[in-house]
Specification:
CATH topology of the largest domain in chain A: Rossmann fold
Number of strands of chain A: 12
Order of helices and strands of chain A: HHHHEHEHEHEEHEHEHEHEEHEE
Number of domains of chain A: 3
Shape of chain A: elongated
Structural class of chain A: alpha/beta
Radius of gyration of chain A: 26 Å
Strand order of the largest sheet of chain A: 2-1-3-4-5-11
Oligomer: homodimer
CATH superfamily of the largest domain in chain A: Response regulator
Chain lengths: 332, 332
DNA sequence: TTTTACCATGCAAGCGCTTGCATAACGAGC
DNA sequence: GCTCGTTATGCAAGCGCTTGCATGGTAAAA
């Protein structure tokens, strides 16, 4: 069987507690003893049993990441997975492991088990998972939402993209390229979702004085975006640019323009949120608001570790997205 | 603090071991005692400490999933993330949790820690992680590769897509639609990758007697695919259909055809591997070989749990992909 | 030299649970 | 009525590590 701390202690001729101390480095150990212990560890290829360690120390040595399966797309969505990647990196650097749990309806259970069975020291989860009932059980347990809650944001810890800012720089970019009548096209099943409101707010802020604006809602499918764009573009006063809140809307818009004989970017400009790989390969490639998922994950993890140290709640952070310029806004 | 098994025992007026037994259900307990214990558990809102349980029982109650960060795309790749989702579901159904670890160069460390520190009872990893040195350390530790190793496949446990079969049904589909001169277009940085060889094998198998075949290698970028397709389509004897091994190749092919005034599907047919969301939204939408990532994940997890029961190695399983018909093969 | 102080290590009691063995209780068999 | 096999539960020794406290030893202070 694998070597234990005891074995190491025997071989080194010291007490187990001494081995423990050199392992944890929190006590002063004489250089010679340390040497001997280290040598014994090396020789026995000793690896501490994290289970025993956790039990004795009361620290699980792991954090939990909850994915919301209700949002089936979460896993198709590079956004979340890529963040997970960064989170894991960060945790690993801190000597922590990462446990994942899916959820949706059942997520309450998965999350509860993770926490109540003391498998993790902290939790990263989508705000949708944090229904009040669960939160009550988890009170005083370190957590961070990956995404801004739609309500009472101030009461929670969260990290999110600065959607308002993203929309604003998108519109400003369009304006700087000479587009004037800019429409917002997009939406989702939940058109009242907070992030959409925030984007629209930024969008409105960026519209030049006295210019028209359009808030065009779709159901999130390219087909619907196509229809809505068609209708809009055939109106007498139509936009000359679109801010799209998803790549799907981009597909619909491109199709509509093609059918109407409108050129992107000559006649119509377009900027899309969510810089999925696809955006670079549409025809024309779409200028996009890009989310730095690595940064997002890192910041989230970092905030969680802070919360794990000092259990003070109410941290927020907005990550500024950036604009990636492609052909769809290169009006000549 | 949270209630312990002892607390429950006291409240129920029984010995801790009895509580443990009703919890694990492996012993015969009189109905009355069970009732009393259950009531106490309920009343105290008791949740077993999984750490203590694991330490005492020698079972971590978790499996590890290793993502290979060298393949940065792994996380962009719905393929792997979606499998992870299914794996987690399966594990959860078995009462297990899932730990994830990234890797690349450092993956040796992450994996080693997971195993050597006894955090997991089994491991799912990409074959690229399983370099001999690591495997030696892990000998007799339950694992399954998610993906067929390029060499010595028989020696390992793995689950993979049946790439040969996928290529075969793709070609057969093209033939059934009236295409005759079919080319294989695609590749990757590692053009000797096993899965490509297997696809090409299936492709060749499907080519009708006496017809020509083309094995066109690209570097994996759409740009390169475009160039290669251009060159090929301008040759005197050119293909009338393509089997693409990635959506990126599809982008390149579409562009080439458009420039040459060739219609897909009238003049050129196309089937692509990897049914990324993008494939449904190209113009025209691409007929694709679809990987059932859910099934892939489930089968992988299932195999791992089998390996964890009876440590016999050498299991393999191929998951048959299916063909999703779209416009790119609808020759009239 | 004696006292004071500290430094490095040993000691042992847990952390919360599992589990092999012992035991009391009980009905059945002779 | 006595022994024997069952059955349901108790007992206690761990699982491998951490950590507060005790202790021996050495250097600085007196």
């Amino acid at each position: 069987m694998a070597a234990t701390l005891q074995d190491v202690a025997h071989l080194a001729g010291v007490n187990p507690s001494t081995v423990s101390r050199v392992l944890n480095g929190k006590s002063v150990i004489s250089p010679e003893t340390r040497e001997r212990v280290l040598a014994a560890i090396e020789k026995l290829d000793y690896h501490p049993n994290s289970l025993a360690r956790s039990l004795a120390s009361g620290q699980a040595g792991a954090i939990g990441v909850v994915l919301d399966a209700q949002d089936v797309g979460a896993f198709q969505n590079p956004f979340f997975s890529a963040s997970q990647f960064a989170i894991e990196q960060y945790a690993q650097d801190q000597g922590y492991h990462v446990m994942v749990a899916n959820g949706g309806r059942k997520s309450g259970n998965a999350v509860e088990r993770l926490v109540l069975e003391r498998k993790v020291d902290g939790l990263i989860m989508p705000p949708s998972t944090g229904h009040p009932e669960l939160l009550k059980k988890l009170i005083h347990f370190p957590y961070v939402f990956l995404g801004q809650p739609d309500e009472n944001g101030d009461d929670y810890n969260w990290v999110d993209i600065d959607n308002e800012y993203g929309a604003l720089i998108a519109v400003e970019h369009l304006v700087s390229k000479g587009y004037r009548r800019i429409a917002y096209l997009g939406g989702s099943q939940r058109s009242d979702a907070g992030f959409i409101m925030r984007r629209q707010k930024g969008y409105l802020k960026g519209i030049p004085e006295g210019e028209l604006h359009w808030l065009l809602a779709t159901d999130g499918t390219p087909e619907n975006a196509y229809e809505v764009a068609m209708a809009c573009l055939q109106g007498e006063q139509h936009p000359d640019a679109f801010l799209l809140d998803d790549n799907m809307a981009g597909i619909g818009l491109i199709k509509a323009c093609r059918e109407l004989g409108l050129s992107i970017p000559q006649d119509i400009g377009a900027v899309t949120f969510n810089n999925f790989p696809m955006a670079a390969y549409t025809d024309p490639p779409l200028t996009a608001i890009d989310i730095n998922t690595g940064l997002l994950g890192t910041e989230t993890a970092q905030m969680l570790f802070e919360c794990m140290k000092e259990a003070e709640a109410g941290h927020h952070k907005l990550i500024k997205p950036s604009l990636i310029e492609r052909e769809s806004t290169q009006k000549k």
